[in-house]
Design goal:
There is one protein chain. This protein has 826 residues and is an alpha+beta fold. It has 5 domains: 40-172, Agglutinin, subunit A (Orthogonal Prism), CATH 2.90.10.10; 178-314, no CATH class; 327-460, no CATH class; 504-596, Phosphorylase Kinase, domain 1 (2-Layer Sandwich), CATH 3.30.200.20; 604-824, Transferase(Phosphotransferase) domain 1 (Transferase(Phosphotransferase), domain 1). It comes from Oryza rufipogon (Brownbeard rice). Belongs to the protein kinase superfamily. Ser/Thr protein kinase family.
Length: 826
């Protein structure tokens, strides 16, 4: 039809013509077909005046990478949006939405078109515009087109030369920042490009969390809540190679595990930050998540999912109002958000999806209805009451009130209906209306939390007066009776207990008695090994003959209740490359752990010729990959990030198929503050310690990465990293391996017992990974997730720099001097 309108007008057939002639009808049909074929073909990535986009139609970028069309975020027939998504992956992740705040009801009667003034517009069923590029083009309608590019950028361009861009979606980000886009500020117009998260996982409406260049003019990026009123994270100023609070960027510029380039430009007319990907090997995106964190995601085909590469802020509870009004955040809980006592989730469906930003609502209204008017204190005392919540970081928007005591502070809050909470600690602080950003510090290990009193309706509490006394009396009597009964039952049970009648606690963990484990291990007669945390003995459970390994812990000073809580947490961690905890024992000062037994023992037996046989290269490579996967799970995928702190061959166990299992992964958590002293004084462990252990700086997951790299050298070579020859000379093998890597001759790095039977491509990859893992600066070491991707062959590896410590430790005299001083460190 468009082609026909563009053709030369023809004179109508006269009534005297033989319009019914089959020959003439065939001739007309042929001419019309030829005319359509002769008309210019319209690209499938373009919207023009003659070709709007409507209904189920989709535009696909020239390379097929991105698509543009109508979509529903929640399969609701009432809300449709025009957006861009990835076209080649099964998860059609949305990266941009035109009408975020104005959903359409029917895509079949809506259309994306070029308007009479040359703008690209989205029209609803009444042909009213709900979104527009809103550019004064100065050209006719048929002189502009809309094109979806392979970068994910939607542009309004000159029809005769699409390289002349009049408008682009890259200047109007949604929640996603794609490679090539510029996030910054126009200094002439003051216009700012920012990322604004979705309101919910199924609601593209602009939410409360955003990322933008500092409005104050500093060369840093900030994340804010509700515009710029609440800043809760900043990148730190640009230092020339990185933002000061994002050291990972330095690693990204130097680390071969990264395929990204980053740069910040501070020009005369504009300031902006941009990033790009080298080649087309990976899909990547920055996104401001519904949770208020900015996340750097990479698509992994083998896993068919987006994998988190980096995120900020690291702690979920650092996000302002992440749990909404009257929600409380706890880092060690899953999920992190919960409602205060007397409140319930305001939007239960979103809450279950992991979006807690809508917060919580009162289950019972306050006596005064939450207004701002005052009522007599006496009346309020009889109605609303307070629930005391201990160990919290208080919100920052409290108002100081003049009060001489905690009771005065309570009455000051009761005297105003808008007051929802108070806290007294020598001074009185009141909070009015919504209570936001409460943070529970219980179990966080940082102490310093204070208590806050939350105002609730009286009906949220039990009865008072005589009724309360009666209940208390009944409870006391019941408890006394229960105690007496428990004593009797305990005596009877102890007399008749058998090992197969073991108690099950905390899921699948078994609570053993010390006598149980004495029987199981034949009085601890067969020792399998030992280390800094204690000795390990072989045993079997009489009930079914299950072989087990029993570890007697030494130096644990935790109380029984705390120890049980920590063990139950560790016991819930399940991964194919982590040793499985079966049970535990706590009696008096005794602390024992029961693990599944690994028939092929520890890795050091097979690497260093202790009667365990010689491992093939294929087995070694799979062991290295398995350990990396296990550590990645501990660091990134557990409810709590767990740092192992003692990665070495002795703590890698092998099952009957020689699959690797990381052992002792929870012992650093159980040992508490003493574990650092134990590690630095333990023989054989000191060679795996990262430099930050020595300098006394904070320990992160990158300490495990360093230890893993040192162990990987040993897996490759089949020898200890540090060996003393018969002549007394000390050889530091990692320095030798690095030199061989740079010289391009890695055959000398491989265990000689393999007689050259090794995949040299995998050897080179493993050596490079090991060198990157043991870099002096933790910022330049990769994450274990990236190590897994490299060993799996998903990411290429470039030559690493020689660590400075290698240059020092390559000198045997320096090595001896350096490590001889370590046992005195505490």
């Amino acid at each position: 039809m468009a082609a026909a309108r563009g053709g030369r007008r023809r004179r109508p057939w006269s009534s005297s013509s033989s319009c019914g002639s089959p020959f003439l009808m065939m001739l007309i049909s042929c001419l019309l077909w030829l005319h359509r074929e002769a008309a210019p073909s319209l690209a499938a990535d373009t919207v023009t005046v003659g070709r709007p986009l409507s209904g189920g139609q989709v535009l696909v970028s020239r390379g097929g990478k991105f698509a543009l069309g109508f979509f529903q975020p929640d399969n609701s027939s009432q809300r449709w949006y025009m957006g861009i998504w990835y076209n080649k992956i099964p998860d059609h992740t949305k990266v941009w939405v035109a009408n975020r705040g104005a959903p359409l009801s029917d895509p079949d009667t809506s259309r994306l078109a070029i308007s009479a003034d040359g703008n690209m517009v989205l029209l609803d069923r009444a042909r009213s515009p709900v979104w527009s590029t809103n550019v004064t083009t100065g050209v006719a309608a048929n002189s502009t087109v809309g094109v979806i590019l392979d970068t994910g950028n939607l542009v309004l361009a000159d029809a005769s030369n699409t390289s002349v861009v009049l408008w682009q979606s890259f200047d109007h980000f949604g929640d996603t920042w794609l490679p090539g886009g510029r996030l910054g500020r126009n200094k002439l117009t003051g216009e700012v490009t920012r990322l604004v998260g979705w309101k919910g996982y199924d609601d593209p409406t602009p939410g409360m969390f955003s990322l933008e260049l500092d409005p104050g003019g500093a060369s840093q990026y900030v994340m804010s809540w509700n515009g710029s009123s609440r800043l809760y994270w900043s990148s730190g100023n640009w230092t020339g190679g990185m933002f000061s609070s994002v050291p990972e960027m330095m690693a990204s510029n130097a680390d071969p595990l990264s395929l990204y380039t980053f740069n910040y430009v501070d020009g005369e007319n504009e300031s902006y930050f941009f990033y790009d990907v080298k080649g087309e090997v990976v899909l990547t995106r920055f996104v401001v998540d519904v949770t208020g964190q900015i996340k750097f995601m990479t698509w992994v085909d083998s896993a068919a999912q987006w994998v988190l590469f980096w995120s900020e802020p690291k702690a979920q509870c650092d996000v302002y109002s992440i749990c909404g009004a009257f929600g409380v955040c706890a880092e060690d809980a899953l999920p992190a958000c919960s409602c205060l006592r007397g409140f319930h989730a305001r939007q239960p469906r979103r809450w279950l999806q992991g979006d807690h930003t809508a917060g919580c609502a009162r289950s019972t209204a306050l006596q005064c209805g939450g207004g701002s008017g005052a009522q007599p204190a006496a009346q309020k005392t009889k109605s609303d009451r307070f629930f005391v919540m201990p160990n919290v970081n208080l919100p920052t928007d409290g108002v100081t009130a003049a009060s001489a005591s905690a009771r005065d502070c309570e009455l000051a809050c009761l005297g105003n209906c808008s007051c929802t909470a108070y806290s007294y600690n020598g001074s009185c602080s009141l909070w009015h209306d919504d209570l936001i950003s409460l943070r529970d510090t219980t179990g966080a290990g940082n102490g310093g939390g204070r208590s806050i009193s939350i105002r609730l309706a009286a009906s949220e509490f039990s009865g008072n007066g005589n009724t309360k006394k009666l209940i208390i009396g009944l409870v006391v009597a019941g408890v006394a009776a229960a105690v007496i009964l428990a004593v009797v039952v305990t005596v009877l049970v102890r007399r008749s207990r058998r090992l197969k009648a073991l108690r099950r606690v905390e899921g699948s963990l078994t609570a053993f008695t010390y006598r149980d484990l004495q029987v199981a291990t034949k009085s601890f007669s067969e020792k399998l090994g030992g280390g800094a945390f204690g000795s390990v003995f072989k045993g079997s459970l009489p009930a079914d003959g299950t072989p087990v390994a029993v570890k007697k812990l030494e130096g644990v000073r935790q109380g029984e209740k705390q120890f049980r809580a920590e063990v139950s947490t560790i016991g819930t961690i399940q991964h194919v490359n982590l040793i499985r905890l079966l049970g535990f024992c706590t009696e008096r000062t005794r602390r024992l752990l029961v693990y599944e037994h690994m028939p092929n023992g520890s890795l050091d037996r097979h690497l260093f010729g202790h009667g365990g046989g010689v491992l093939s290269w294929e087995a070694r490579y799979q062991i290295a990959l398995g350990v990396a996967r296990g550590l990645d799970y501990l660091h990134e995928k557990c409810r709590d990030c767990i740092i192992h702190c003692d990665i070495k061959p002795e703590n890698i166990l092998l099952d009957d198929a020689f699959a690797a299992k990381v052992a002792d992964f929870g012992l650093a958590k159980l040992m508490g503050r003493d574990f650092s002293r134990v590690l630095t004084t333990m023989r054989g462990t000191v060679g795996y310690l990262a430099p930050e252990w020595i300098t006394g700086t904070a320990i992160t997951t990158k300490a495990d990465v360093f230890s893993y790299g040192m162990m990987l050298f040993e897996i490759i070579s089949g020898r200890r990293n540090v060996e003393q020859g018969q002549d007394g000379a000390v050889d530091f093998f990692p320095a030798t391996a690095a030199r061989l890597l740079f010289d391009g001759d890695l055959k000398g790095a491989v265990d000689g017992r393999l007689a050259g039977n090794a995949d040299m491509g995998e050897v080179e990859r493993a050596c490079k990974v090991a060198c990157w893992c043991v870099q002096d600066s933790e910022a330049t070491r990769p994450s274990m997730g990236m190590v897994v991707q490299v060993l799996e062959g998903l990411v290429d590896v470039n030559a690493p720099p020689m660590p400075r410590s290698f240059k020092v430790l390559g000198d045997p005299s320096n090595y001896v001097k350096f490590f001889s001083a370590l046992p005195s460190i505490s």
